[in-house]
């Protein structure tokens, strides 16, 4: 009987131990599962962080790319502006004080009451003009070759439109200007002579680049009325296309020092003549507008 009780007790004890072992295993399993879940959550967090990092990097890269594109566009705009400035500079006729304005051989030479030519200056390329003339004096029927060629083209173009022009007075030497100016002074007084005649050395005619033109409608004379004739109007509107400019426009006596002379054409070359014509300025005003420091009569 005692043995039987012991067996029962042992059996109960083993059952209790077995139950205890299962509980521990379950607890261990739950712990392991929690650890696995924790690891998975950690891994997912790391992956999320990595993705976020990649997204941020992509955003940063995109922002950097946008910034680079913006910088590139800005640089392109600056380059375009610089190119425009260069193109504008290239389209502007260059004028140098020493090489052009003070050089008697330059077609851009400045000759007026402040800037006189040397007494001994005479162009080396004078030719007799090949257009209708008024006077027989061989000296004043001359121009520098480049100006003579342009005058021939202009007279021909005018004739095609029914406009007949005549050349009256071209090149004049320093000595000829001495005689002419003294004659005006003797007949009209020095003050009057200074308004419509140049002192020796101060005349554009000495350059061989100036020609006085007239027409039958003006009785082949040099008068202000020529400016209102069909020929004078044509000259005013078209002379620049051939390199000539009316040097002493109406209402500019205070600037040029000379009264209105619609007949007095000065050759500058087509590019510079066009610039001066389109500016609506006298040559002196045009140079000042260009920022060139010249002396004036003021």
Description:
The protein is of the alpha+beta class and 298 residues long. It has 2 domains: 1-91; 97-289, Muramoyl-pentapeptide Carboxypeptidase, domain 2. It contains 9 helices and 6 strands; from the N terminus they run ααββαβααβαβαβαα. It has helices at residues 2-91, 97-101, 145-160, 174-188, 190-196, 230-238, 253-256, 270-279, 283-289; strands at 126-128, 142-144, 166-169, 210-214, 244-248, 261-267. The strands form 2 sheets. It has a 4-stranded antiparallel beta sheet with strand order 3-4-6-5. A two-stranded antiparallel sheet has the order 1-2.
Count of individual beta strands? 6
Question: Fraction of residues in helices?
Answer: 40-55%
Given as residue ranges, the uncertain stretches (5+ residues, pLDDT < 50) are 1-13, 15-63, 82-88
**Percentage of residues in DSSP E strands:** 5-15%
Give a short account of the largest sheet: 4 strands, antiparallel
Please, how many domains?
2
End-to-end distance: 152 Å
> What is the count of DSSP helices, taking H or I runs of 4+ residues?
9
What are the main properties of this structure?
Muramoyl-pentapeptide Carboxypeptidase, domain 2, 298 residues, 2 domains, single chain, 6 strands, globular, 9% strand, alpha+beta
Helices and strands in order, then pairings?
Blueprint: H1 2-91, H2 97-101, E1 126-128, E2 142-144, H3 145-160, E3 166-169, H4 174-188, H5 190-196, E4 210-214, H6 230-238, E5 244-248, H7 253-256, E6 261-267, H8 270-279, H9 283-289
Antiparallel strand pairs: 1-2, 3-4, 4-6, 5-6
């Amino acid at each position: 009987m005692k043995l039987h009780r012991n067996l029962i007790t042992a059996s109960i004890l083993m059952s209790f131990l077995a139950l205890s072992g299962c509980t521990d295993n379950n607890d261990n399993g739950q712990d392991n599962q929690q650890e696995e879940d924790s690891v998975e959550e950690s891994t997912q967090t790391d992956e999320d962080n990595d993705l976020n990092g990649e997204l941020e990097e992509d955003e940063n890269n995109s922002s950097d790319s946008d910034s680079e594109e913006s910088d590139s566009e800005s640089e392109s705009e600056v380059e375009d502006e610089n190119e425009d400035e260069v193109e504008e500079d290239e389209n502007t006729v260059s004028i140098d004080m020493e090489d052009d304005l003070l050089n008697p051989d330059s077609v851009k030479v400045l000759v007026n009451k402040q800037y006189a030519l040397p007494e001994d200056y005479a162009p080396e390329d004078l030719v007799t003009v090949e257009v209708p003339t008024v006077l027989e004096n061989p000296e004043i029927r001359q121009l520098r070759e480049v100006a003579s060629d342009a005058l021939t083209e202009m007279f021909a173009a005018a004739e095609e439109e029914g406009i007949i022009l005549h050349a009256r007075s071209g090149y004049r030497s320093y000595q000829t200007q001495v005689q002419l100016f003294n004659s005006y002074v003797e007949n009209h007084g020095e003050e009057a002579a200074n308004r419509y005649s140049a002192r020796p050395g101060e005349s554009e005619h000495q350059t061989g680049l100036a020609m006085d033109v007239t027409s039958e409608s003006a009785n082949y004379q040099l008068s202000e009325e020529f400016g209102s004739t069909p020929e004078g109007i044509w000259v005013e509107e078209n002379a620049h296309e051939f390199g000539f400019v009316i040097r002493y426009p109406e209402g500019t006596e205070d600037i040029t020092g000379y009264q209105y002379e619609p007949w007095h054409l000065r050759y500058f070359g087509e590019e510079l003549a066009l610039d001066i014509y389109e500016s609506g300025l006298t040559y002196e005003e045009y140079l000042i507008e260009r920022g060139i420091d010249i002396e004036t009569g003021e």
